[in-house]
Structures are given as structure tokens and as C-alpha cells.
């Protein structure tokens, strides 16, 4: 039995794993876990990841959750090119540093744009007041400022002259607001240039392919959401509506 | 030149680093950044970590933030025993998995309990809100359940039979709500046993030493804060 990756490309964590595996020609079976449909997968999927989140990996009897852990596992198992997770101690530390900071900064804010503009209306039929989005964009702006000042600086990529896992993790998260029409690259030329370099390094075709769903997210508006799922997510959404 | 670690032991990630360095006899200079005095906001510290957070490392000209990055850096540079970050691919993945998940789970919910019970009433001086505290406890309980069911299960430690960075990072975070008086180990025998094993593996004396400040945190509330500092902390903390 080969490597199985449980993915839904609407999810940032899934896109980074997908891009990384494809780019490095890592053979895997794409197990589609559709986030918005009640699928028979669900019970089976719980055995792969008890936390019931994507992405998840299954390698024989070994199962693994958390996109960062999956990326690191794949990079080591398949001996991917050094620049992804450099053997140089200090460069590697800089990748680790970004991967850690990312969780509670870029990742804390960027996804909320999708929740506010698409998912909450889809699940509850309500639209939130515009100030909610404004607040999220403000927080995101702070994170982006720190990203540019501390992590990117004047380098082509986060760690230096070559793309690494850090850039990949960052870019997929930042595509989430793009998908809902919040162009965070608009007034940030340095960030935009970095984005181009990342797309180039990954391969434009692969990048587009991975982002096709999120860039057409508005089509989700017509989707039939599984009522069970609606019920399950209601408390989460109520918290966001606060 | 010796490595400099910028720490305040009130902070969970600082404790993990302190314990790890001491346990492994890694020579370092303890640079105290007193959070309650607002020293993390100083220009001088900003040169070590522009994000103005502890912990931070300075190794010659090289500076590094984020406790996990620092732990990994030290483990590699000083070739610490394999069990801390196993070379076995699957065990290592288990450690990575926990270190990733914990940011928005154990760490986040543990911090929230500490914020509502101690930081807000005692340090910032705003009223204690019991509903907020109850909610924070509820959320913490939920992630504790996930911790036991997914990460610990019936193993001795998160990655298997030996302690790793995952257990260290977990335990220091769990001590934060404990310091507020919420004994989360009380009705969780499996978790309590794991805690004992971790303390044993780290060394009881070192564990106590690292946690002395936080376990006496309510005494610190008598330290007067300048009004500017109080306002600053209020701004930083009340985003939650």
C-alpha cells in the first residue's frame, strides 16, 4: 500500500502538502475529503485522523496529522532537495522560526477573511457588519508588516536565496484572502515580488492547479451544505460572530 | 562567546528552554527580560528580537526567536540525546505533530485560563469575569481530552517510551493554568502519571526551580506597575 494523502484543496494546509508532494514527484494517492459534504469518508477518515482535520497522511499503518509535520516527514523520507529544509543549522532554524510564528500570526488572521466573506453567510445566511472584516484586515496588516520586516527583509525568500518550506507555508495561507477578493498584495510591492518568485520556484502551473478551488470560491455559494455539518459548525460560527 | 538566552520564567516557552538547556548542560548566559517591568518592549531587546517577545537566543551575531526553533537549534548544535528529537522518522513526526498542534490548542487555551484568572485581575487591574474564566476552562478541558486521546494514548510519553521535546513543551504550558489554582491533573490520573514521569525524566529539582516564579505568581501582583506599562499590557492582552 502506497502513501495516502487526505486532502481538500480549499484548505491551506492541504495545498502546501499537495504542492510539495507534486513538486518533488512524491507518489501518493489523493484521497479527497470534501469539507462541505457529508461523506461516507467521514467515519473512515476518523481512523486516519482522530482530530478529523485535513490534511492527514497514511503511510502503511502510520498515520499523521498537522501539515507542518507532514511536510517535514515527506521531506525527510523522500530526501527532497536541501533548500526545502536546509541542513545548514542557522538556515534551518530560520525555517523553524517562521513555521512556529506562522500559527498564531498569519494563520490566525488570513483564514478569517474566508469565514467572514463566504462561509458564515453560507452556513448561517447572515452577513457580518463590515467592521468585522476591517478588524481582521487590520490584524492581518500587522502580521504582514512583521512578515516583511522580520522574516523576508531584503532577501528573495525567507531563508535567503532559495525557496524553503517557510515560503510555501506562508504563500498558501495568503492566497486565502485573495480567493475572497481581499487583495493583500495590492499595496505591498515587495510582498508581491516575493509571491512571484515563490510561484516561479514552485511552478506556475502547479501553483494555479492547487489554487483553482480557492480562487473560484464564490461558486461555493451555490453548494448544498450537509445539514449535519451545519449543525456541527454552528457553535464555532457563533463564536466568530461574537 | 557563550550563547545568550533571553528569558522570563513566568513565560511557558522560556521555562521549556531553561529546562532543556540546564538538563543538557548547555552553557548559556541567562539574560533576564522582566515582562512585568515591560523590558520586552525596550529598544535594546528589540535588537535581539524585533518581535519583542521572549524567549530569544543570541549566538554570536545570530539571533533567533520562537521557543520551538530555539529548542531544535540547541538540540542540533549540542548533539543532545536522540530521544529529545528522535532520528527515527515516525517518532520524530509524532514530536513535530504535537509541536504544531499545540500552538492553537494546549498553549492557546492554557494561556487564556491564565489571562482571565491572573493577568487581567491582578496585573492589569480589571475585574475578574467568572463567565470568561469558566469558558476558558471549558475550552482547556476540551483540548486536554484531545491530548489524552490522540497524543498520549496509552504510551509513557508522546513519542513513545522516552521523553521528547513534545512532552517538555506540553508540561510547561499545563503548569500555567495549574499556577492559577486550577488543578487539571486532579481528576485525570493518566495525565497525572504522565506528569510524574516527565518531572522524573527532567529532574525534580530542575523542574521545581524552573516553576518557582509561576507557582508564586500571585505574590507578584504586589509589584506596582507603572500606569504606562499597565496600559501597554492591557492593549497587548485584551485582544482576546
From TrEMBL, chain A:
Pfam families assigned to the protein according to its UniProt record, in alphabetical order: GST_C, GST_N
Assembly mode: Homodimer.
Entry annotated with the keyword Transferase: yes
Gene Ontology molecular function: glutathione transferase activity
Keywords, ordered alphabetically: Cytoplasm, Transferase
Catalytic EC class: transferase
Domain of life: Eukaryota
Primary location recorded for the protein, binned into one broad class: cytoplasm
Organism: Pelusios castaneus
Reaction catalysis annotation: RX + glutathione = an S-substituted glutathione + a halide anion + H(+)
Subcellular location: Cytoplasm
CDD domains: GST_C_Theta, GST_N_Theta
The protein, known as: glutathione transferase
Record EC number: 2.5.1.18
Family in the record: Belongs to the GST superfamily. Theta family.
GO biological process: glutathione metabolic process
Record-level GO cellular component terms: cytoplasm
Domain GST N-terminal: 1-82
TrEMBL record, chain B:
Subcellular location: Cytoplasm
Keyword Cytoplasm: yes
Subunit text: Homodimer.
Organism whose genome encodes this protein: Pelusios castaneus (West African mud turtle)
GST N-terminal domain mapped to chain residues: 1-82
Reactions catalysed according to its record: RX + glutathione = an S-substituted glutathione + a halide anion + H(+)
Single GO BP term: glutathione metabolic process
Keyword Transferase: yes
Name of protein: glutathione transferase
Enzyme Commission number: 2.5.1.18
Phylogenetic lineage: Eukaryota, Metazoa, Chordata, Craniata, Vertebrata
GO cellular component, one term: cytoplasm
The family this protein is said to belong to: Belongs to the GST superfamily. Theta family.
Signal peptide (residue range): none
Keyword line: Cytoplasm, Transferase
Single Gene Ontology MF annotation: glutathione transferase activity
Domain GST C-terminal residue range list: 88-225
Predominant subcellular localization, coarse grouping: cytoplasm
EC class: transferase
Amino acid at each position: 500500500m502506497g502513501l495516502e494523502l487526505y486532502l481538500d484543496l480549499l484548505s491551506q494546509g492541504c495545498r502546501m502538502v499537495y504542492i510539495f508532494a507534486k513538486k518533488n514527484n512524491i507518489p501518493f494517492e489523493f484521497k479527497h475529503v470534501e469539507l462541505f459534504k457529508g461523506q461516507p469518508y467521514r467515519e473512515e477518515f476518523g481512523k486516519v485522523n482522530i482530530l478529523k482535520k485535513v490534511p492527514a497522511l497514511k503511510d502503511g499503518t502510520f498515520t499523521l496529522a498537522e501539515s507542518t509535520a507532514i511536510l517535514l516527514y515527506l521531506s525527510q523520507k523522500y530526501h527532497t532537495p536541501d533548500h526545502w529544509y536546509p541542513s545548514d543549522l542557522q538556515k534551518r532554524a530560520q525555517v523553524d522560526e517562521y513555521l512556529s510564528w506562522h500559527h498564531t500570526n498569519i494563520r490566525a488572521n488570513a483564514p478569517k477573511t474566508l469565514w467572514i466573506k463566504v462561509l458564515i453567510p453560507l452556513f448561517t445566511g447572515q452577513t457580518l457588519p463590515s467592521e468585522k472584516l476591517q478588524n481582521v484586515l487590520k490584524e492581518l496588516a500587522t502580521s504582514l508588516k512583521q512578515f516583511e520586516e522580520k522574516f523576508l527583509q531584503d532577501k528573495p525568500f525567507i531563508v535567503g536565496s532559495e525557496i524553503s518550506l517557510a515560503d510555501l507555508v506562508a504563500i498558501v495561507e495568503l492566497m486565502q484572502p485573495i480567493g475572497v477578493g481581499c487583495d493583500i498584495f495590492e499595496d505591498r510591492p515587495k510582498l508581491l515580488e516575493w509571491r512571484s518568485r515563490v510561484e516561479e520556484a514552485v511552478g506556475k502551473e502547479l501553483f494555479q492547479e492547487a489554487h483553482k478551488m480557492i480562487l473560484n470560491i464564490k461558486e461555493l455559494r451555490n453548494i448544498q451544505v450537509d445539514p449535519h455539518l451545519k449543525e456541527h459548525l454552528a457553535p464555532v460560527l457563533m463564536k466568530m460572530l461574537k | 562567546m557563550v550563547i545568550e538566552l533571553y528569558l522570563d520564567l513566568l513565560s511557558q516557552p522560556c521555562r521549556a528552554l531553561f529546562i532543556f538547556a540546564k538538563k543538557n548542560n548547555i552553557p548559556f548566559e541567562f539574560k533576564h527580560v522582566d515582562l512585568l517591568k515591560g523590558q520586552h518592549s525596550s529598544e535594546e531587546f528589540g535588537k535581539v528580537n524585533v518581535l519583542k517577545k521572549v524567549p530569544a537566543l543570541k549566538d554570536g551575531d545570530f539571533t533567533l526567536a520562537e521557543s520551538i526553533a530555539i529548542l531544535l537549534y540547541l538540540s542540533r548544535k549540542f548533539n543532545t540525546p536522540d530521544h529529545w528529537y528522535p532520528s527515527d522518522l515516525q517518532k520524530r513526526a509524532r514530536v513535530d505533530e504535537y509541536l504544531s498542534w499545540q500552538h492553537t490548542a494546549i498553549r492557546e487555551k492554557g494561556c487564556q485560563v491564565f489571562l482571565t484568572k491572573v493577568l487581567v485581575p491582578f496585573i492589569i487591574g480589571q475585574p475578574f469575569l467568572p463567565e470568561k474564566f469558566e469558558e476558558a476552562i471549558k475550552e482547556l478541558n476540551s483540548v486536554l481530552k484531545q491530548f489524552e486521546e490522540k497524543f498520549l494514548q496509552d504510551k509513557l510519553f508522546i513519542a513513545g517510551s522516552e521523553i521528547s521535546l513534545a512532552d517538555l513543551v506540553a508540561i510547561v504550558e499545563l503548569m500555567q493554568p495549574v499556577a492559577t489554582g486550577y488543578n487539571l491533573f486532579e481528576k485525570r490520573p493518566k495525565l497525572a502519571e504522565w506528569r510524574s514521569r516527565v518531572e522524573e525524566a527532567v529532574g525534580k529539582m530542575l523542574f521545581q526551580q524552573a516553576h518557582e516564579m509561576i507557582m508564586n505568581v500571585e505574590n507578584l501582583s504586589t509589584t506596582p506597575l507603572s500606569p504606562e506599562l499597565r496600559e501597554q499590557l492591557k492593549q497587548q492582552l485584551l485582544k482576546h
